[in-house]
Amino acid sequence: MPGHISATLENVFADHCIALFAQEMGDKDNAEIFRKRAQNYRNLFSPEVGWMRCKDENGQWAPWQGEYDTDGCTESNIFQQSWFVPHDPQGLIDLMGKEQCIANLDRLMAESDLSAMWNEAYNHPNEPCHHLVHFFSDLGQPHKTQYWVRRIQMESYNTTEYGFCGNEDVGQMSAWFALTALGFHMMAPGSGIFHVNTPLFRRAEIRLSEEYHDRSIADTLVIECDRDPAENMYICGLDVNGKPIRRAWLTWEEIASGGVITYHLTDMPEDTWVDMLPPSVSGSRE
C-alpha cells in the first residue's frame, strides 16, 4: 500500500493467515497465492537504511528521515513497526543480517522506559511491539526473552488504579500479562506456536475446556517450576509430561492435551539447553 508501512505489513500477515486457512480447507491454489503474498514484506525493506521504508505509488522510496520517523506508521514509528513480520522471523533476520538484527533489537529494548505511557523505542503500551521480546528466541538468545519479559511484568504493570501502562484495548494488555505469567506467549497468532518465558508463579493449574481443548492426557494443564521464579529468572530446561524438550517453544497440541509442563530454572542466563529454533515460513531452522 503506497505510503503505508503499517497497513502493508499487517495485510501481509493477514495474507499469511488466509494461506493457513485455505490450506486447512484443502484449497491448495489459494493457499499458494496467499503464501506468496505473505512474502511481500520484503518489498518494503530498504537495504540502504536497514529498515522498512515507505514507497510511493510508483514504487520509489520515500525520503529517509531516520528510524524514529512516523510517516507511514500507525501509532508507531519505523523503529518499532519494522519488526512486524511475526510469521517469518527468519526472513526478517536474513534481510537485516543476524548480528545487526540482534544489535537493533538490543537497542530497541535498551532505549525503552518500560514504566512510561509511551515510548519511541520498545513501546509496551501499544500492540505492535507485544511480540518483540519473544523475538530473541528466534535469534537463539532465549535468555534475553526471559529477562525482558520479567522486566515488563514488573515495570509496565502495577496494582494501582493506573495498573496498565496503556489502553487495555479489548483485553490485549491483560492477555499479554496473563499468558506470560503462565510462561508462554504466541508471537504469530494462528501459528500454533507459543514461545516460552519464565513463569511468574511457582505453580499454576488451568482447567481445560472440552469445547476448545483436546485433553487427551488430562483435563487440566499444570505449569510448575522446580525453583522459585522470583529468584531464578532464567530457564535451563523444559519438560512436557516428563519428557525433556530442547526448544524454547511449545505447540498448541502440547498445551491443549493437558498434563504437566515443568520449567527448570536457574539464576544465570543459560541457552545451551536449546538446540532448535521456532518454525518460520522461510524454512527449517536448526
| Element string (H = helix, E = strand) | HHEEHHHHHHEEEEEEEHE
Largest sheet: 5 strands, mixed
Rg, nearest Å: 19 Å
The percentage helix is: 25-40%
Shape: globular
Care to describe what's here?
Helix 1 runs antiparallel to helix 2 (28-37) and helix 4 (89-96) crosses helix 5. The chain has 286 residues and is an alpha+beta fold. The chain has 9 helices and 10 strands. It has a 5-stranded mixed beta sheet with strand order 5-6-10-7-8. The protein is globular, with a radius of gyration of 19 Å. The mean pLDDT is 95.
Summarize this structure as a short list of keywords or feature phrases.
286 residues; alpha+beta; 5-stranded mixed β-sheet; 3-stranded antiparallel β-sheet; 9 helices; 14% strand
Brief summary:
The protein has nine helices and ten strands. It is of the alpha+beta class and 286 residues long.
Give the secondary structure arrangement, pairings included:
Elements: H1 5-24, H2 28-37, E1 45-46, E2 51-52, H3 78-81, H4 89-96, H5 98-110, H6 135-138, H7 142-155, H8 172-182, E3 184-185, E4 193-196, E5 203-207, E6 220-225, E7 234-240, E8 243-244, E9 249-251, H9 252-256, E10 259-266
Parallel strand pairs: 6-10
Antiparallel strand pairs: 1-2, 3-4, 4-9, 5-6, 7-8, 7-10
